[in-house]
Design goal:
alpha/beta, Rossmann fold, seven-stranded mixed sheet, six-stranded mixed sheet, binds glutamic acid
Length: about 450
Amino acid sequence: MSKARSTNTAPTETGADKNDEKTQNGAESDIFLDALSRMEAAAKVTHTSPEVLERLSRPHYVLQVSIPVRMDDGSLRVFEGYRVRYDDSRGPAKGGIRYHPDVNLSEVKALGFWMAFKCAVVGIPFGGGKGGIVVNPKELSNMELERLSRGFIQQIADFIGPDLDVPAPDVYTNPTIMGWMMDEYSKITRTHSPAIITGKPISLGGSLGRDDATGRGGYYCIKELEKRKGWSPNGINVAIQGFGNAGQHVARLLHADGYQIVAVSDSEGGVYREEGHNIPALMRTKQMSGRLLTEGQIITNAELLELPVDILIPAALENQITRHNASRIKAKTIVELANGPTTSEADKVLHKRGALVVPDILANAGGVTVSYFEWVQNRAGFYWTEEEVHDRLYSIMSSSFSAVYDLAQRESLDMRTAAYAHALSRIGAAIEAHGTQDYFISQD
Ligand code: GLU
């Protein structure tokens, strides 16, 4: 760790070592292929039919669009965007839209695949999808951002729908953007269509409790671990990589329970403080200045991951824990609030070291679970109290956590393989029921 460092590793700016993982034969490993390898490992436990695996090895639909945007200075810029409907065997595709300069098709496919498994882990009736635009939104004015967001919906309007594919926020998108998108879709279809998208502002049909749902879902997982391990929060140190929506809320909830949040970071780098950060104060300065202004030791994002803490929460981007740093990760418990923060090679190293990883498809499923509640409320035209949202979220998160944890114990699996196995049996059952060779033979 170094004091007063001026240049920090910034995972959200560089995409970290996304292209740094080499396969054994020297070729670049692909994030989507790495995602598929988790399903293959789980299939050995579930004995899923090869036909099901074949179906789940590729996305159902992929749409690539270009979005022309008139910039404030009068010039024209054309942005590249994607929407992938990965799998819809269990219901309409569901998943966010990401704005980031490193967005690419392989990543969007991986993110859509993870969404399908995430929805199945928590048993909500959706498939998986994802979208993204190659853009650094910090370089755009608000009006340019609005034109880009509306332009994207114009390009993908025929591809999405409340019964087909329901977008939501993801990295660097927010309720305001969801509101513009819902408005644009409603104009195109000449209907009031709140159920087209989730994560909207409350005034446009958003759900109470959606704002902190991802962080809260991760927090409920930690509370389940606390019960099983007999932790006393005051003695537990936590480091959180990423202080966006998910990172801030999990920090707030854990801090309120007495956990010591000793390190946090954003794309500019992190701050370590042995006695723990004052999280409400940190959230205020972050929201007002956009920066992590606080006293403490300046650290890089890479250094944060290797701190000697009890719980590490990666809450930024994918490919942060790789085979290059896995052996230096000291935390015994890792709770993945980001999508895909750990590569499959790193998983093996962590497992050998006895670290417990609560995998992304379970730990960050709180967001999509409350998105499901929002969609249900929009379709029913009947809205719930925040307490009802929290109670229902708690009940889904705690029972899903138990199902995965117990399966892992029973079959001596790591929690990721157990989560994939749990999800794969649900998706597999839906695909089988749609009709596979085995299904027809068993009906004879
Ligand atoms: N982007 C979030 C995720 O990765 C939320 C998706 C949603 O609410 O549909 O889970």
